[in-house]
UniProtKB/TrEMBL annotation:
The keyword Membrane does not apply. Its cofactor is pyridoxal 5'-phosphate. This is Glutamate-1-semialdehyde 2,1-aminomutase, chloroplastic. It comes from Rhynchospora breviuscula. Keywords: Isomerase, Porphyrin biosynthesis, Pyridoxal phosphate. InterPro entries: 4pyrrol_synth_GluAld_NH2Trfase (IPR004639), Aminotrans_3 (IPR005814), Aminotrans_3_PPA_site (IPR049704), PyrdxlP-dep_Trfase (IPR015424), PyrdxlP-dep_Trfase_major (IPR015421), PyrdxlP-dep_Trfase_small (IPR015422). It is an enzyme of class 5 (isomerase). One of its GO terms (cellular component) is chloroplast. Residues 1-14 have a biased composition (Polar residues). It comes from the Eukaryota.
Length: 471
């Protein structure tokens, strides 16, 4: 029985069948003295404490969670309850260690709990957590974002990606004087009412076509088209002439699995929006600072009118932002009449985490590194899948990736839904038992970080090879 080192239980909790072996290099918490081997075939992942806590949580929180996909509904089994994170690793409350490819859904791009970010947070904390008044750190993060993201001349900080998209939508409507918007099937722009139409992963995973509680009036101005289908967009423009405020999209989709734009698609959207006096909004909550330091707009060399951000810019604290050309942004209150506010917006702790995360990302070679290890990971998994006889496809850009259990190609959400989600669930469970934490849904992108080593990737690919053979 082949064993993999290091990712598994504490020695005291180790199943009898698992053989102790050398410890992995990398972070070790002081409380954890020895990392032991766990066999990939070993299905006795001990999760007693996780189960106990989650069972209690179900009485306290709807579904036991504060965000639906965390509940593991689409892959089955109980979710894991975590105790701590560091670098590329997560530890659950039972002491199991995992290599993490969720990265808190994107923010952890430089690795979890980075020492420099933590040190800066501690210094900032000493001066207080929130002023509800201007602070210098807002300028520092704003300058970094403006310098990085080509389309952004001014920025407004908020507390989540959802808020950023709500703000950008209101602003687009205020600026153009139009109300209709076009979004794409499978793209997620947070949980605000007007976007909860064909909204991808979280909603799709639960099998909810739309959410009850969203008034018809809130979505009646939301038009949808299949991703990568420029003809469908043209038809919508023709039948709604002079009425469309904005086209909003994920420039690379991460909320319907990982889907890239066809060559020319983003350019065509740029042209048609310009011709029609419609704003182009890149929702870069996921892709911002992940595909490139300047986001997807730098990577693809397309300049949108407005950009929404989140995840990475908060470095693990709650931050969102929207930004764009000065003439548009100056409509936002109090510079202009479009109202949008936030009690905790721009608070010093969140700004600090963002500033120091971005600082790390300006060091040379970061994105090349992410590209290399992520390519190694995805190619390794796809090769193993092919050898095991599975129909699979997938890809990556820099530190964002995904694989589907269908031969593909996947250009839109309909294609993505051809994936064998039952097989994905078995793959997910197998990887979990091997000590690899993947997003618990076929319709979510995966993420790597600067803290992931080649060894982590090799371990993961080896684990995938074994799991793919038996599912
Ligand atoms: C995560 C995400 C959001 C929502 O951000 P929250 O911080 O979860 O509110 C919006 N758009 C995209 C593309 C996202 O990936």
């Amino acid at each position: 029985m082949a064993t993999f080192t290091g990712v598994g239980s504490h020695s005291s909790l180790l199943p009898v069948s698992a053989k102790p072996s050398r410890t992995r290099s990398g972070h070790r918490r002081a409380s954890v003295l020895v990392r032991n081997a766990i066999s990939v075939e070993n299905k006795s992942l001990k999760l007693d404490k996780s189960e106990e806590i989650f069972t209690a949580a179900k009485e306290l929180l709807p579904g036991g969670v504060n965000s639906p996909v965390r509940a593991f509904r689409s892959v089955g089994g109980q979710p894991i309850v975590f105790d701590s994170v560091k670098g590329s690793r997560m530890w659950d409350v039972d002491g199991n260690e995992y290599i993490d490819y969720v990265g808190s859904w994107g923010p952890a791009i430089i690795g979890h709990a980075d020492d420099k970010v933590n040190a800066a947070l501690i210094e900032t904390l000493k001066k207080g957590t929130s002023f509800g008044a201007p602070c210098l750190l807002e300028n520092v993060l704003a300058e970094a974002v403006i310098a990085a993201v080509p389309s952004v001349e001014m920025v407004r900080f908020v507390n989540s990606g959802t808020e950023a998209c709500m703000g950008a939508l209101r602003l687009a409507r205020a600026f153009t004087g139009h109300e209709k918007i076009i979004k794409f099937e499978g793209c997620y722009h947070g949980h605000a009412d007007p976007f909860l139409v064909k909204a991808g992963s979280g909603v799709a995973t639960l099998g909810l076509p739309d959410s009850p509680g969203v008034p018809k009036a809130a979505t009646s101005e939301t038009l949808t088209a299949p991703y990568n289908d420029i003809d469908a967009v043209k038809l919508l423009f023709e039948s709604n002439k002079g009425e469309i405020a904005a086209v909003i999209l994920e420039p690379v989709v991460g909320n319907a699995g990982f889907i890239t734009p066809k060559p020319g698609f983003l350019n065509a959207l740029r042209e048609i929006t310009k011709e029609n006096g419609t704003l182009l909004i890149f929702d870069e909550v996921m892709t911002g600072f992940r595909l490139a330091y300047g986001g997807a707009q730098e990577y693809f060399n397309i300049t949108p009118d407005l950009t929404t951000m989140g995840k990475v810019i908060g470095g693990g604290l709650p931050v969102g932002a929207y930004g764009g050309r000065r003439e548009i942004m100056e409509m936002v209150a109090p510079a202009g009449p479009m109202y949008q506010a936030g009690t905790l917006s721009g608070n010093p702790l969140a700004m600090t985490a963002g500033i120091h995360t971005l600082k790390r990302l300006t060091e040379p070679g970061c994105y090349e590194y992410l590209d290399n290890i992520t390519g190694q990971l995805v190619n390794g998994i796809l090769d193993s899948g092919k050898r095991a006889g599975h129909k699979m496809c997938g890809g990556h850009i820099r530190g964002m990736f995904g694989v589907f259990f269908t031969s593909g190609p996947v250009y839109n959400f309909e294609d993505a839904k051809k994936s064998d989600t039952g097989k994905f669930a078995r793959f997910h469970r197998g990887m979990l038992e091997a000590g690899v934490y993947l997003a618990p849904s076929q319709f979510e992108a995966g993420f790597t970080s600067l803290a992931h080593t080649s060894k982590d990737i090799e371990f993961t690919v080896e684990a995938a090879e074994k799991v793919l053979k038996r599912i």
